[in-house]
Amino acid sequence: MVSSLATMVTAEESNPTAQYSLQNYYQSTETTCSPSTSRKFGTNPEDLPQMELISPSLRKNIVEDSPDFPADRTMAILTMLFNKLNVPLAKNKTIGPDTVMEYLGNILDSHQMQARLPMDKILRIREILESFSDKKSCTKRELLQLLGHLNFASRVIIPGRSFVSYLLSLASSVRELHHHVHLNAECREDILMWKLFLEQWNGVSFFYDIERTPA
């Protein structure tokens, strides 16, 4: 039996960021809410039951239970808590508990202890990388669009982080978005490495135990 995952999304979801860590098969998710919501939660918590609606909304949240804990109970408690705080949940985006689910654009698998990119995102990034293979130059805008996809993928494909610094330097070498940059050999090598990473490293990234284990 493996850990169960559950996500809960407020009705008006903002752009979330999160970091994942695993501690003895418990996952802690670090999320932040908007400044106005933070003030309402942090300044007058005793006034929360009287608030008609907290706005802007909280960001997407994820909870993981240990294998021997009833995950359905956690979902029920959290739902009741949000209801008491008058925080509306988007029911169509509240899913779980399950051992595999998509969260912030990545697939989290507590059975295989992996985080991986969905196939549609892999195909999209491959398509963009392939479009750069035969180019001798591109605009700064096009290069930044590529870097945006690679930056997202590097959250899961960790080795790829080492192969974006040159592309970033190249993008910063011109001022305007419509200005062109030359795609030299170093740039093509980085693009080639990313092609290999998408084929061989997706799903290899996993949660590390923060405690040292004997060899």
UniProtKB/TrEMBL annotation:
Domain of life, per lineage: Eukaryota
InterPro entries associated with the record: DNA/RNA_pol_sf (IPR043502), Hepadnavirus_pol/RT (IPR052055)
PANTHER family in the record: REVERSE TRANSCRIPTASE DOMAIN-CONTAINING PROTEIN
Name this protein carries in UniProt: Uncharacterized protein
Organism of origin: Magallana gigas
